[in-house]
Amino acid sequence: MAGRTMVGKGPRSRYAPDRGLTTRMVTTMFLIGLVYVVFVGVLLAVLRGSWPLILLIAGVLFIAQFWFSDRITAFSMGAHEVTPEQAPELHGAVDRICALADMPKPRVAIADSDVPNAFAVGRNENTALVCATTGLLRRLEPEELEGVLAHELSHVAHRDVAVMTIASFLGVLAGVMTRIALWGGLGRPDSSRDPNAAIAMLLIPVVSAAVYVVSFLLTRLLSRYRELSADRAAAMLTGRPSALASALTKVTGEMAAIPTRDLRKAEPFNAFWFAPAFSSKESLSRLLSSHPTLEQRLDQLGRISAQLGRP
Q1: How far apart are the C-alpha atoms of 258 and 256, rounded to whole Å?
Q2: pLDDT tens-digit profile of 110-131?
Q3: Would you list which residues are annotated within the binding site?
Q4: % the chain with pLDDT above 70
């Protein structure tokens, strides 16, 4: 019920609602919450003496992730806010999209990176931030930039940014809690002679790995759908799917020319980027990507363009 409240409330924009996305968001939140409870329950069962510490750390990390994850993500990706005087073209494009969508204007930022990309973060429309890299601003035409920004702002309007942030948190928590549990268990004087402690030391990494895999799969399934949903919503809002398709083609093609070192730095944040940061030669990265393939995205935009062209 809490997940449904978070997803469903708030002012409605002119972005087309996506029931499929809403259903997947609620389902993901429910399953993530279920796995979260099971994981903490297993830790409490096998490490009875450490339960106060486990509950305290789990609670603090969850609250910190929810309230500060957007700021941490933006800082980690090198975003710095800019004024309309500092970036008039970017602010102008954001103003036009917000007016078209009838939604509050988010904070606007630029990341000093040659990787052509953009992202949006924020728990809701009041805390939202949209950021474009310097590499993107140099490469795109005004209509293409507006298409990308419309894509990113749809994530804010649909609230899927907040859901993705919480969903990705479980994998991080699994690793942190395992370290705490192992440290607590190994630190007990009788841990080497207690067979139950030995079993716990073997069981915890296995449970942690299973939790990470489940979290990874859930976030990937949601992330791929939400990118298609954002493309669809942006194309319908702007009425220019061809401009978004052009931006996608240009950004994806330029990735191959970016130094591998820069791509490696951007890759951990692929779930937030407009397009995944990896070279076209990295087939494994494509297989595990948080985004659908370029062909899938262009095919969808082509169908929307055909629909909009009909009487």
Answers
A1: 6
A2: 999 999 999 998 877 788 899 9
A3: 151, 155, 227
A4: 74
